[in-house]
Amino acid sequence: MSSSPLIYPVYAPQSPGRMQLWVRAWLPALAFSMVFAIESTSYFGADRTSAPLQRLAEALFGYDIGVYWETIHHTIRKTGHFLGYGVFSLVCFRGFWVALGEQTNRLRNKLRAHGLAVLVTFLVASADEIHQTFLPNRDGSFSDVMLDTCGAVALGLMLFLAMLAMARRRRARSGARRAAMPAYVE
Length: 186
Fold this sequence. Notes:
mainly alpha; 5 helices
């Protein structure tokens, strides 16, 4: 026996409204952007992060690491750019995936969602570097924007290839199930 949604509106399954869908799609990207805004302050410049990170690295790996610290610190910061904006691109892809809805099932629309995610990542990285030019101990560089965009492309490509592999596996499993089903004669 099923209940009428008019009698029990609280228990009736409801689909999310358009606004709720957009908030759910883009709130993680907005939160990630806030992380970029916080880390893009003068408090997180290379001159302020070097000493604490060096102490941590020396505690973990010994004092010999201090000889190579400038190179290690540079590598840590650039890896952070690459991975941080790469993950941001994946979060943006999720936003476009949810916002585009059922249209993303086709290959062309998946590529469109990835392309839009990379574009948004490029724009946010550019805005971040422009903002850093106004800070006394930071400087903006186009090479960082390109590194951020490369991170977006690389992680997006990895996700895209994983999605293709999962889709192929799903098709292979469903094809194997159909082949294993007995044919019924009427």
